[in-house]
Give the backbone structure.
Amino acid sequence: MDKKPTSYRHTIWPFALIGAALVVALVARSQLVPASFGDAGHFRADAIEEARRIAPRHLGQSDCEECHDDVAHLHDKDAHAGVACETCHGPGADHVAAGGDGGIQRPAGQQPCLVCHELMLARPGDFAQIVPAEHYRLVGVGDERTECIACHDPHEPLFMDHDLRTARLHPLIHRCRDCHAGRTDETMARPAGHPAIFQCDYCHGEIARGFADRPHHRMRCATCHLFFRESESAGRILRDTDPRFCLLCHRGAEFRSSDAPPSIDWPDHRADMAEHATDLTKRCIDCHQDRIHPLRTDAAAPGDTPRGGKES
Amino acid sequence: MKTRNRKSDRPDESRRHLLKLLAAGSGLLVFPLGSLPTRASAADGTGERPPYWAYAVDTTRCMGCCACMRACRDENGVPKGVFRTWVERYRIDLDDEVHVDVAMHDDFVFAPAPGDVARAFFVPKLCNHCEKSVCNQVCPVGAAYRTADGVVLVDAEHCIGCGYCVQACPYGSRFINPESHVADKCTFCYHRLARGLAPACVLTCPREARLFGDLNDPQSKLSVLLRQRPYRLLKPELGTHPKCYYLGLDREVV
Amino acid sequence: MDFVFPNELNVTWTVMIVLYPYITGLVAGAFIVSSLYHVFSRTELKAVARFSLASAFVFLLFAPLPLLMHLGQPQRAFNIMITPNFASAMAGFGFIYTAYLLVLVLEIWFVMRSSFIERARCRGGVAALCRLILLGNLHEDEGTRRADHKIARFLAGVGIPLACLLHGYVGFLFGSLKANPWWSTPLMFVIFIFSAIVSGIAVLIFHYMVVARLNGWKLDQPCIRSLTGYLWGFMIIAVALELLEVLSIAYKQTEEWEVLGMLIRRKLWISYVILQYLVFSLIPFLLLGINTLFKLRDRLANAMIWIAATMLLVQVLLMRWNVVVGGQLVSKSMRGFTDYLPGVWEKEGLAVAAAIFTLPFCILWLFNKIVPLFPEAKPRT
């Protein structure tokens, strides 16, 4: 039987066509690869430049200082040092672009303060937090709608008059909430049988005992001696002596309730005392020390009080 | 590892008051706690080294105000419902049960939570800018990349929006941007770094819980801090070599 | 146990990405059947040889469609071939797909050349189209036929590894993601290949029986019996592998089982345990087993086989769903789960999915109008 030989001629064209398509695809690919692709790795190197070109919205302290040097300077010396202007005021780019005319947030009401300072579960114990109602009761604010800024200038909230960075170093003081993070009913009283922890009265026993007999005993030591926790083992302690710090509680105002701490009229109070009227170095505690606690004595050295906490 | 020598215009040395810097600088305060990163050991001091950016989160300092989330949204125009950074609140109750939540609504303010817990704390999260980032590995078109200074970025002009990187990221840091339809994530505010500014979240954090710096500079605040304080990485077992160092991180955090 | 990272609330890979591996699975499975005839000379499969090849081809044409529907920037889809990042498992897609498509187109050309020539000799538009497909060359004799057969057989052989690669690689794409405990297993590659073969055979049985019924054809009973045997065998392997993967994690009681066990109990109990295994695996297993081991009356046997094949089509779809969606329900925080229910009318919704899945069948119908896919079919007596 005469077999016809296998004929492949007709198969050339389909393969040739596919070969041509592949060549076209390869050429097209080489044309379509973005310009800077592969220059710095397997990506479009120009993308880096594009990522850099985006305009910032937050400008930073130094830009704010160019116009608001005074506020920024105030800000430096108080508890909000380290809080950027734009944390509270929002991004400043629009404000600068508008030549300082608008384009910036001016926080109002209590909420912008409470975002940070409301007592909240999981907030570290060394951070200043309040339950607004309790705080207002303590300082005698009758109207619950009173804004925080009625007493606290946000740029100078505590009139510390110290640079935080220069405050005294101090071993760590524990507060109840350092351990009891979830407890919101913190009191000054240490429950019987509670293990000893490092507290103010261990070293400053005499001052603490004297303090207990005087009208300020409702407050914690750290309410005035602001404590700033800096590491696992140490912090910085501030002793505030600016009259305006005392006035946070003692200045008379319409919003004070009847059971408010004793109020005075300021600055009339200073004017009333002829001999001090012009002496601006005079501090409240120069006259009213006895209302707070005995002054530091030689006995207030470490080891003065046994560390076992047996006294309670 | 990288060697480094770099000066002055680092964002982490910005004009803000750096309490941490003080803490780090003062020998009285710091107690080496036995967790020294090795990467800062090879400074040769010859010439200018490019920076190698990294991030640290001090979880003992974060107090959950979420200023970082607001700043990130405003700085980068992050749409609603997706997050380049977020703050997790951990509550571990007395039965060791862990509850986690995130303030997701418009103002990013945490809702009141039940008390009586064994411990509770906040953990800010963001892209870890991994040295061996899975997202870069899996991007089919080369739209995910790492810059020489150690920042993982997305080429939004080249990305096809397949979402493979979103699946690959073990940290949930990536998302498909609902407006641009391409992958999106934290950039360490790369546009700000280029101008010598700190990332927006670092700038606006009122508690210095977020820190940013140059690992190539052994004297940078970050390098010093990482030599002095113990830290943890997130999911190190996955071999991604994350570059966000979590100081004082609780064991429950993933 | 209820926390998910905030970016995980919305599932990224939708029902489109469920559909994509489902369709490539049908391609791979149908192609394996055609290769059983063309390469391994299983002559009893002659009745569905052309049909399976054409099915593989049309499903392959539509495989990228769900991907394009899913892409955020579909107009940039070709970036995957222009600047492929070969460190990525996904970068191979364009090349494997193209290579496989070329093999399939060529194989169809060589297998069906005679039929195209026959059609091209008529008049009208379809004939003109056929002449174009044939590149104008209508010459045919014993020599060209022998060449066509040899080349087709070679291409069918080359196509087997490509089919496994195309589909197994989809499994690898999931299995290689270390961030996801539900996906991250080397078994994924193998599971996908075997489930693909199951779905491919099942769709051929399903479709062949429907077409035969509609046209009043007599079913090729030896072919059906053979397909039934293959289907039963491959489904046993596929289901065994799927079970093996989960059971080994469950038995080892590793840390990831804590969250995966909860995923199965809380989120996938119905779609995975009840539907995928208890209903859509167990019943077809029994139906096919009975028909493989016993000889029933043709009418009864065919009904049972058709039900089993249809159920296995659903089983594989459920498996794709449980892998693709199930894996995304677990938060990478390992502390909770998100939810996903596809919408009906959205871009990546169920209506589009149904349309994409229906289109290949329509194209196949058109294909049959040009070149008969069942040249051997005889009317029922």
About this structure: The CA atoms of residues 59 and 233 of chain C lie 24 Å apart.
